[in-house]
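Both lines are retained for reference:
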Amino acid sequence: MFCGVFDGHGPWGHLVSKRVKKVMPAFLLHYWQEASAQCSAGLKNANLNQFGMWKKSFKRACSTVDTDLELHPVIDSFYSGTAALTIIREVHTKLIITHFFLIFKESERIHKSGGSVCEADDEPGVSRIRAPHEESPDGPGLALSRAFGDFFVKDFGLISEPDVIQRTVTTRDRFVILATDGAVEIVSSATERDEAAKRIVDYAAGQWKLKRPGYAVDDISVVCLFFHNPVADPEILSSGHT
């Protein structure tokens, strides 16, 4: 089972996120089948475990998705892009999780690539990648260190390579929540996050107005994947606020 949330940003962000949502599953399946075939054939350097195969497949798929955006004849992703949070649920116990919501621990890599990480005066606490030619901190920047698209900073530290981890699901794990930063930034405690999808979205939208009055409410998308439904297959609930 594959599911995810794709959080577009910029003038073309809604089209970028839709494009990534459309093509990523097919690319991922293709590269996983290729890796599986190589392992089955016993080819050199193909001796990967199941997680290794998924990790390699995700990295190759994300690179191909980014190339697809760069070469797309209609969608302009130079100043637009999308973050992503995805999950593969393998049979019974394993979750393969990929995400793009990183920046702080990657500032060294960004600086080595010629980019800079700084905050704008009107957004304290929000770090953004900026190209070196941007003299003013109020110029275009990106509050992500990994994303699809956004080619204006791709040469200055932004990458499309995902962070891939694996988690074993136990009987104590009831569900997993996939949420965009519009929910995660404003809903801080574990207790608050344990609400179901629609309640989280409604609550987060209210918290934006309460904690950041005068700011536009960020796009909020939430998916809840339930693991142990006794009468049916794992249930997915989703909700969103734009």
Residues 171-242 form one domain. Residues 183-195, 230-242 have pLDDT under 50 and may be disordered.
